[in-house]
């Protein structure tokens, strides 16, 4: 009995120390051997955990921008001529979050799709998820008011941040090419992010940024989880003399990269190319991946400049990033997606 009780005390102390470490109370961790037996520690942790949970919920609710909405208990189930109430109510178990699945509500205007979506978003917030509620009309308004590519990039990063991802800029200023090549400062940036987060990094690259992302994945595949490119012309043909502006932008001085002639080859990680036939800057065919086991193309309607705020592009990026690590699969085009995506 004495041995069993001793083990229980040790286990409780270990559990308390884990909570202290998780809260980042480094002063308490440093003096743990001295203070671990104090009776006030557990009360302190409960107060701190509740306060942080409250502030977290307030912050996430504020950032979610759900707005005012009718609670589901007041929903008029008899108003839509056809609705599967049992299926809708089952969605509030939020199993689709753990499965990294998507929910699409289809119906005419005024039948309650937005109300259901707002209630789902609120339920996810209460359970600790990060939510961003954005009507398509608001996305399009942002797109029309954007003051240039940098503004569009900020909005793309803000969208991904609202989904709970840590987003990072490339950190090398205006993109005029890489004088030191993709294996220089940009590779060091990837290595630093990998070390900071302790896991493989997903790279989302727009236009020339997508070409850089693919080359980084070739140089450091163990540090890259997947690559998503938006209108990136990695398939652009080189000139007859074997040179080209693209190789110079990516590898620096001519001859600065061992793979200059192989930019179009896919990296050894999952890669998704989001492309548009309306892309008059990078071109449709130059941005497409060749058929491969872990390479795919997702076609959308829209311009090159507008890719970063195109609702179909944002949905596709979120879908790709939501996949479990080491469980990549091709984009699902079943149902309505088959109409919206090529």
Tell me the layout of helices and strands.
Blueprint (H helix, E strand, L loop, with lengths): L1 H22 L2 H5 L1 H4 L4 H25 L20 H7 L3 H4 L14 H14 L9 H10 L3 H14 L22 H13 L3 E6 L1 H12 L4 E7 L14 H7 L19 E6 L18 E6 L10 H11 L15 H4 L2
Parallel strand pairs: 1-2, 2-3, 3-4
List keywords for this structure.
342 residues, Rossmann fold, 3 domains, 44% helix
Task: Describe it.
- Helix 1 runs parallel beside helix 4 and helix 4 (40-64) runs antiparallel to helix 7 (113-126).
- This protein has a four-stranded parallel beta sheet with strand order 1-2-3-4, with helices on both faces.
- It has helices at 2-23, 26-30, 32-35, 40-64, 85-91, 95-98, 113-126, 136-145, 149-162, 185-197, 208-219, 245-251, 311-321, 337-340; strands at residues 201-206, 224-230, 271-276, 295-300.
- It has 342 residues and is α/β, with parallel strands linked by helices.
- The chain has three domains: 2-64, no CATH class; 72-126, no CATH class; 136-340, Rossmann fold (3-Layer(aba) Sandwich).
């Amino acid at each position: 009995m004495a041995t069993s009780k001793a083990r229980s005390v040790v286990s409780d102390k270990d559990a308390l120390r884990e909570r202290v470490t998780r809260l980042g109370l480094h002063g308490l961790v440093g003096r743990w051997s001295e203070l671990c037996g104090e009776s006030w520690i557990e009360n302190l942790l409960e107060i701190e955990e509740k306060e942080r949970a409250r502030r977290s919920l307030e912050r996430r609710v504020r950032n979610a921008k759900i707005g005012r909405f009718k609670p589901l208990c007041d929903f008029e189930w008899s108003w839509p001529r056809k609705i599967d109430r049992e299926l809708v109510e089952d969605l509030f178990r939020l199993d689709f979050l753990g499965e990294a699945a998507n929910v699409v509500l289809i119906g005419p205007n005024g039948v309650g799709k937005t109300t259901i979506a707002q209630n789902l978003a609120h339920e996810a917030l209460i359970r600790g998820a990060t939510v961003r509620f954005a009507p398509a009309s608001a996305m399009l308004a942002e797109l029309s008011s954007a003051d240039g590519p940098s503004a569009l990039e900020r909005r793309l990063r803000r969208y991904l941040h609202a989904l709970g991802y840590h987003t990072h800029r490339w950190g090398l200023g205006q993109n005029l090419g890489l004088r030191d090549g993709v294996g220089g400062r940009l590779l060091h940036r990837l290595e630093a992010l990998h070390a900071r987060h302790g896991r493989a990094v997903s790279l989302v690259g727009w236009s020339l940024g997508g070409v850089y992302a693919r080359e980084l994945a070739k140089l450091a595949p163990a540090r890259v989880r997947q690559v998503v490119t938006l209108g990136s012309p990695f398939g652009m043909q080189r000139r007859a003399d074997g040179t080209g502006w693209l190789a110079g932008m990516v590898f620096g001085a001519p001859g600065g990269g061992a793979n200059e002639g192989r930019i179009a080859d896919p990296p050894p990680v999952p890669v998704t190319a989001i492309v548009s036939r309306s892309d008059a800057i990078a071109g449709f065919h130059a941005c497409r991946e060749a058929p491969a086991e872990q390479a795919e193309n997702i076609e959308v309607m829209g311009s090159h400049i507008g890719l970063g705020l195109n609702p179909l592009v944002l949905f596709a990026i979120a879908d790709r990033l939501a996949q479990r690590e080491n469980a990549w699969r091709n984009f699902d085009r079943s149902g309505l997606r088959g109409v919206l995506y090529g």
